[in-house]
Amino acid sequence: MSPESGTPITRDRILDVAEALFASRGFAGTSMRDIAAEAGLTAASLYNHFEGKDDLYVAVLQRGIRPLIDLMQRLAESEGGDAATEAVIRAVMEHLARRPHLPRLIHHEAVTGGSHIARVARGWVRPLVEQGLAEMKRGAPAQWQPDEYPLVIASWIHLILGHFALAPLFRDVFDEDPLAPELLERQTRVLLKIAQSTGARSPVDE
Amino acid sequence: MSPESGTPITRDRILDVAEALFASRGFAGTSMRDIAAEAGLTAASLYNHFEGKDDLYVAVLQRGIRPLIDLMQRLAESEGGDAATEAVIRAVMEHLARRPHLPRLIHHEAVTGGSHIARVARGWVRPLVEQGLAEMKRGAPAQWQPDEYPLVIASWIHLILGHFALAPLFRDVFDEDPLAPELLERQTRVLLKIAQSTGARSPVDE
Amino acid sequence: MSPESGTPITRDRILDVAEALFASRGFAGTSMRDIAAEAGLTAASLYNHFEGKDDLYVAVLQRGIRPLIDLMQRLAESEGGDAATEAVIRAVMEHLARRPHLPRLIHHEAVTGGSHIARVARGWVRPLVEQGLAEMKRGAPAQWQPDEYPLVIASWIHLILGHFALAPLFRDVFDEDPLAPELLERQTRVLLKIAQSTGARSPVDE
Amino acid sequence: MSPESGTPITRDRILDVAEALFASRGFAGTSMRDIAAEAGLTAASLYNHFEGKDDLYVAVLQRGIRPLIDLMQRLAESEGGDAATEAVIRAVMEHLARRPHLPRLIHHEAVTGGSHIARVARGWVRPLVEQGLAEMKRGAPAQWQPDEYPLVIASWIHLILGHFALAPLFRDVFDEDPLAPELLERQTRVLLKIAQSTGARSPVDE
DNA sequence: GATGAATGAGGATTCATTCAT
DNA sequence: AATGAATGAATCCTCATTCAT
Asked: CA D185, CA D173: separation in Å to the nearest integer?
């Protein structure tokens, strides 16, 4: 009946719930029972859909990261230049705004150095970094030395992911929700300004 | 008799071990037994020094964050200006280089939105942000709107903490250790350049 | 609709698989899922053919033991004497050679003292023992006292079943498979010699 | 207080209980909870004494089999001959009478072909069989061919272990307990007679 | 006749914690 | 100050079974 076979409804519901819980409590802090309960199931039922906690976690990770990889690849295929930088920032911010759990998932993995991180690192971040490196080698702002390129790229990742991942903290500090549409828009503006300030092509270029 | 007494040496050893484990596995992922084992003790012995896991965790957090708060306060008392920005970046980077677990601890708390985060938020980040706000209000680069000030400050936090906290990820992506002295120095240079680029006082100011 | 119906082929396949698994892992150590998987089915499907695990187990037991009972009865109807002893040993050895799981099933039941053992005991072993007793009473080797008759019969059961049931052990000890045709033949010869040695009619008889 | 350090009492109590349960229900059929309950403990407490179910099982097996190995070695050091055969049978029967769970444990392992069987096979049965083989090679009854020696030895194992291990079955068949002292004595007599009948040195030997 | 999905019960094991020693 | 032993609660997961499809 549905274009997909199986019973995608339940499976997806589990993935949704698991994504939210893994994102906010981490892998170790999330119990199968909690996931099941939130999905309206018994813990045992989860095993009809996933082989185990680890399998479920990987499924959550992949479902979340895959579209981000795809997005980055699509963006990479567009031509570069200053306009492109703006487009990338806008696109990524909009994408993450719709999947606000993803950055926290990535942060958990990254900070923990979990066993899945190799997958994340090699599958997603490395290609992304390498795209960025290639782009910068073709023409980076004059202020950056080549050995600083990776750090510049990492810094952009910190800026973008950090805003989402550390939202719980800053929600307590500011009295506003960093994930509210208005603040996301404002943060995008801030990032664009940073891009302009730091990305000014060297006078030689012009 | 009081759980606060005990050989300071052992207590500190426990704190050291707990800090490392909490930082790399998070609160839920770290067991009292693991901490005890790594400290050459039995789990039961930990209770001679701390009232429980939670108490130990708070102790770790406070021991780690307190010096950072002090550092920020000392820096705040110095006068501002462009030179100050550079001094702050250098000082914080150097401080964190000596306590590399701290950023991961903070990230865990921040991402998790744990029950201790209020403490962290109110005790450390809020004053820091308010110092920054005050500073910016006294004279910020012209490109920033007042409602962007908090986001700019948060962005700096992302840039600095992110480099340390996400080191496990980027260690896998680059083939270098982000926490190696040489990369820390390089990252400091990058941050200084970003500060210069984005922080340029508007021509009108001068 | 009735759980007794169904394609006989599938039912027999399940019985075959279950027999092998129950024999090598015991009742408690064998899961319905394992049986189903080995039979190319899902656990749920087993319930189309058997009422439950217990029912399946009993079916396996009965299917295996029934022919053995029949064999013993047929042998009992033949007249006794030394020739008969040889015939019994040969017949039983040949029968078990074709159903090598059976002795292990019986051993499991016997050692466990499981709830099904009463069935086995009363349904199969007891008549067999009583046949033997009757036979011995009609004329046993002079060396056996009447109160030893049951033990002698039990000993024969140990000798014959043991060779099959403990094959996994002796396969490890010898470097040969006790169930290989050649060793079965050799074991038969050994048993026949034991029968001759111990069964010699007293000189008075002759 | 006790000649052994530690708290041997609880540990031994657990071993006793586990031995009985493993013997009568097998490894898979015995739960840690049951063992604990029978020992007056909680399941969690078992893990203060053993690393896990498997470890406990191995401990039970070793504690039971070790003395049997020692007995066999002592017997092997005595000189052989017909008198020795009688001594061995008597000694083993008496030993097993005092540890009636052991044969069932061995049978479970042997029939299951469990993962521990290699240990049992190599550690205990193989040396025993090899002792027997050496003995037979020095002078066996004329009726046995050399290639039958292993089977003869195995047959003795079946006769002796079988009486103990299959006791639950024959308790149901006879109306007597095969492990009752009187029946053990009777079984010993039967075995001795079998030994005499089958072991008669060939006239040529004399 | 087969199965995917659901589940209550129970499996082994871990965990934080307590307490007597 | 340290620990061995004990434990209730919770962990992940398996199991036998049911039922709608």
From this structure: 19
Q: How confident is the model at residue A181 (pLDDT cuts 50, 70, 90)?
A: very high
Give the nearest partner residue to A174 out of B150, B155, B162, using CB atoms: B150
Specify burial of residue A193 (Cβ count, 10 A radius: 0-12, 13-18, 19+): middle
Which sequence spans correspond to the domains of chain B? 64-198
For the stretch C41-59, pLDDT in tens is 999 999 999 999 999 999 9
Q: Is A19 on the interface with B (CB under 8 A)?
A: no
* D187 interaction partners in chain C (CB closer than 8 Å): 151
Looking at residue A76, what is its pLDDT?
77
- The distance (Å) linking the CA of A57 with the C1' of E9 is 26
Per-residue exposure over C79-115, b if at least 16 CB sit within 10 Å of its own CB, e if not: ebeeeebbebbeebbeebbebbbbbbbbbbbbbbbbe
Neighbours of D56 (CB within 10 A): 23
Tell whether A65 lies on the interface with B, counting CB pairs under 8 A: no
Mutation to test the D interface, candidates C173, C175, C189, C193, most D Cβ within 10 Å:
C173
Which class does domain B64-198 fall in?
mainly alpha
Q: Which fold has domain D8-198?
A: Tetracycline Repressor; domain 2 (1.10.357)
Q: Residue A67 is encoded by which pair of tokens?
A: 């579209």
Could you report the per-residue pLDDT of D161-175, keeping only the tens digit for each? 999 999 998 988 888
Q: Let me know: does C95 contact C68? Beta carbons within 8 Å.
A: yes
- Give the 3-state secondary structure percentages of chain A, helix then strand then coil, rounded to 5: 75, 0, 25
The pLDDT score that the predictor gives to residue D127 is 81
CA distance A73 to A131: 9
- Structure tokens that stand for D4 in this block: 């052994």
Angle CA(C42)–CA(C47)–CA(C52) in degrees, nearest 5?
115
Query: Token pair for residue B164?
Result: 């340390």
Contact assignment for D163 to C154 by CB distance below 8 Å: yes
Contact status, residue B22 vs residue B105, Cβ threshold 8 Å: yes
- The 10 Å CB-count burial string (b at 16+, else e) for A75-86 is bbeeebeeeebb
Question: Position of tokens 């007891």?
Answer: C126
> Å from C51 (CA) to F19 (C1')?
15
How far is C-alpha B69 from the chain's CA centre? 9
> pLDDT digit string (tens) for C116-132?
766 766 777 888 888 88
* Chosen from B19, B101, B143, B166 to mutate, greatest number of chain A CBs within 10 A: B166
- Say if B84 is an interface residue toward chain A (CB within 8 Å): no
C180 Cβ neighbours under 8 A, 6+ residues apart:
none
With both helix axes pointing from N to C terminus, report the angle between B181-199 and B82-98 in degrees, rounded to the nearest 10. 160
Q: Which CATH number fits domain A62-199: 2.30.30.40, 3.30.70.640, 1.10.357.10, 1.20.1560.10?
A: 1.10.357.10
pLDDT digits (tens, 9 = 90+) for A192-206: 999 988 875 544 443
Task: For tokens 């029949």, name the residue.
Answer: C70
**pLDDT tens-digit series, residues C162-193:** 999 999 999 988 889 999 999 999 999 999 99
Nearest CA in chain B to A177: B151
When comparing pLDDT for C137 and A45, which is higher?
A45
* Distance from CA(A33) to C1'(E6), angstroms, rounded: 15
pLDDT (tens digit per residue) in B119-166: 766 777 888 888 888 888 887 788 999 999 999 999 999 999 999 999
The answer to whether the beta carbons of residues B120 and A124 sit under 8 Å apart is no
- Look up the CATH superfamily of C8-200: Tetracycline Repressor, domain 2 (1.10.357.10)
| Gap from D153 CA to E20 C1', Å | 54
Of the candidate ranges C76-85, C178-187, D29-38, the one whose mean pLDDT is the lowest: C76-85
